[in-house]
Design goal:
A two-stranded antiparallel ribbon has the order 1-4. It has a two-stranded antiparallel sheet with strand order 2-3. The radius of gyration is 29 Å and the shape is globular. The chain is 70% helix and 6% strand. It contains 17 helices and 4 strands. The longest helix is centred in the C-terminal third of the chain and has 48 residues.
Length: 416
Amino acid sequence: MSQEASKGLDNVEIEMEPRIVELEEIKDDGDEEIIVEMKKETQPPSRLMRWKAIFLNIFSKVWFFTTLGLTILLAYLIPDVGKTGGPLHPEITVKYCSIPFLFLCSGLKIPSNELLGSLLAWRFHVFAQVFVYGLFPLLMFGLSKALEPLLNPYLIQGLMVMSCFPTTTTTCVILTRSANGNESKGLFNAAFSNIIGIFICPALLYIYVSASGSIPFLSIIITLLLTVLLPIVVGQIIQLILSRMGRVSILAKIPTGHLSNLVLFFVVFTVFSDSFSQKESEIEITDWLYVGLALVGFHALVLTISFFLSGIPIFKFDRKDRVALIFISIQKTLGMGVPFINIVYEGNPNIGYVFLPIMIYHPLQLATGGLLVTVLKSWVMAQRNEKDVTTDTKGFLDSPSTSQEDPRTTLSIGNK
């Protein structure tokens, strides 16, 4: 190559449109560095690959609800397996194994600073607890008054008793996690709701139904501490130890999300098994029908109200917060509800009527939650994508190179 040509290569700028290329090799020819670029060749996907992609895309959106439906069907077919006292012994495996495991996963997954920071979200906490113990029972009081001419008085009491219960300790947290909601705030409020519910629930029962009983406060508090708080603390301690050792990445390899879903399906199976194994002879079919229809409509009502109330700008909740609030606000616990009913109505021959509303509502909220997970997850992701686009656009407009240079790729070739 001539000296004139060699000099002509100094500080030459070649402008080109951006394109996807694959670097094949770099050849050193004397003083000149020559970069050989080859366009990446892509093969069109086969028909089998296209069908596989379509199937995986659809399955990723409906797998949760599909699996939930199959779980309920299985409980219907073999209710004796999962019912209380059955071979799986849910009174032990759910209460002392499944629930602590779920909260252990939460303790392992949620960063400590995020969990502590959720304590300061007072707007969130006030909204959740006022809805659970204030608005929900008030709305149910109006519904029960409207149903008085149609239902047995003890069914009316059962509706009011159910409305005074705390939110669920487990399913609202799992559903929040599955829908990409704010798990740390959901976790705190689920535990907090059940702790204060020990004192608030008896007071509400006395106000609305004039019911009273000797509530074993100490026993309930100890159970909550052992099954909810202790696993979270253990998880946080493990997380802290691994962080000090520089091995916190180990936690990322634990599929806590999938494990939590498996445990949820197990809990759902046992709950529906109990429901399907109940003897219906004591209660008229019309009572089941009226209560079931009333609770479906009521559930839709509180779901709608919680969705729109949480969206009021003054609260400043983002979509992750609103997902957590929806699941916390509209759910009622069966685990604490059953002991309360047994204590307050001990020896009452009509206790079956009081149990009916919570036995219908609990499976209903699980089925609805399974339906909502995919929808709410897409809704949360849409807001996240909007934020990413806004951030990228702002960064591009603020970049100094935007106003000074043409945004095309520039390749400089020169001597070493």
